Fold this sequence. Notes:
- By secondary structure, this protein is mainly α.
- Helix content is 69%, strand content 2%.
- A two-stranded antiparallel sheet has the order 1-2.
- The protein is globular, with a radius of gyration of 22 Å.
- The two termini are 18 Å apart.
Amino acid sequence: MTAATAPAARFRSPARNVKLAPLVALIFFSVSGGAYGIEGLFPTAGPGIGLLLLLVTPLVYSVPHAMVCAELGTAIPVDGGYYHWVRRGLGRFWGFQQGMISWLGGFVDLAVYPVLFTGYLQSMVGWAAPGEHVMFAVGGLQFDLHWCVCLAVITACVLINLMGTARVGASAVVFAVVCLTPLLVLSVAGFAHMLGGGAGPVQQLTGRPEQSIGSAFGAGLFLAMWNYSGWDDVSAFAGEIENPRKHLPRALALSVGVITVGYLLPALASLSLGPDGPAGWKSWRSGSFSTVAGALAGPWLQTAVTVGGMIASAAMFSALLTSSARVPFVLAQDGYFPNWMARRTARRQVPVASLIGSSAIYALFCLSSFSNLIIVDVFLTNITLLLEVAALIALRVREPRLERPYRVPGGPVGLSLVVLSLTGVCTWAAWQQYAENGTTAVTYCLIAVSACALLYPPMAKRRRRIAGAEA
C-alpha cells in the first residue's frame, strides 16, 4: 500500500471527545446558524421562488453532499477529513489542491461572519447608517470602528478555540439555543399575524414582474447554496469526534432537518407582512429579520432577534475556525508547510500556530464587502465539493473493500443520482452567476485555483526533501 493510500491513522487526535449533541451544533453552525442572513434571497428571487429554493436546495445539494460526507467521513475518520479523502482517492496533487482551495475559501467564508456580526450591532446601536464605516483616532492613528469590532469577534472566537474542540462544541449547543429562540418567537408572532389578516406567504413568484422564473431561480441559487453549504467542515476534526463512524451520519441527518425547518419557519412567518413598507420583503437585506421582529411584536423582539443574529454570526465563525485551522495543520504534518505549523498544545491538542495565523488572514478579509465574499466563497466551495465527489468514485473503484459503515444508498443508481445532482447544480449555478454578474468572481476563483496549482511543485519538492532527510 502506497503512502498516498495508506490509512492516515497518525493524524488522529489522541482524544475523541466531541459527542453527538455538540457535533450536531457544530454542523448547524458550520452550515447555517439559523435564518439570519437569508433575507436577501426574497427581494432577489421573489417570495415564491425564494421559498422554493429553500425547499429544493437541500434535496439536490445538501442531502447529496451530506451523503458523500457521511460515506467518506465514516470510512476515513481522521483529522483533516476532506484533505485525506481526496488525497487517498485522487493522489497527492489533488489532495494538495483540496486542502489549499478549502483554506483559501476559508479566507473568504470566515470573513463573512464578523462582518455580519458588526452589521447587526450597527443596526442595534445605530452608530451610523447601515453599511457606513466610522473612523476614529487614537494617538494620531486612524482606525475603522467596523473593522475593530470584527477584530474583537475574531479574538474572542480564537480564545474559545484555544480551549479545545470539545469546549467549542459545548459552547455551540448553548449558542444554538440562544440564537434560535428569538426566531421561534418571531415565527409564532408571524403566523399569528398571518391568521389575523396578514399577507399570505406567496404574494408573487418572482421579485419583479418582468423577472422570469428561470432568472429568479438562478439569481437566488447562489445565496441559497451559501446558506446550505459546509457539510464537510466537521470532517476536518473527525479525529476528535467520539465514535465518528456512528455519530457522523446521525449528526448530518439531524442537521439537514433542523437547518431546513430553521430557514422555512421564520421566512414563511415574516412574509406575512407583505411586500411593502420598512419590514416588507421588497426591502429585505441581510439582517432585516430584526426589522420584521419589531413590526410584529415591538422593540423587545427586535432587540432579541438582533442579539440572536450577533450570537449566530460569532458562533458560526467559531465553529468554522475549528475546522479551517486544521487544514494548514495537516498540510504541515504532510510536509508541505513548516513543521512549527504542525504542533499542537499538549493538553487540548489545539494547533495554535495554524489557528492564530489563519485568524490574522481572516481579519484582513473582513475589509471586503458581504456580497463579494459570498459569490467567491460559493465558487470555491463547489470546486472542493466536486473534488470530494470524484474522490468518492475513485475510492469505490480503487478500494472496494474499504470499510464503509455508511454508504450512499441505492447502489450504483443512487451514487449516480448523487453525482449527477451535485455536478449539475454546481455547473448550472456557476453559469447563472456568470450570466448575471460577468467574469469578476470567476476571475478571482481562477486566480486562486491557478495559484494553488503553481504552488504544488515547490511544496512537493520540499515535502520530498524532508521525507528524504527523515529516512
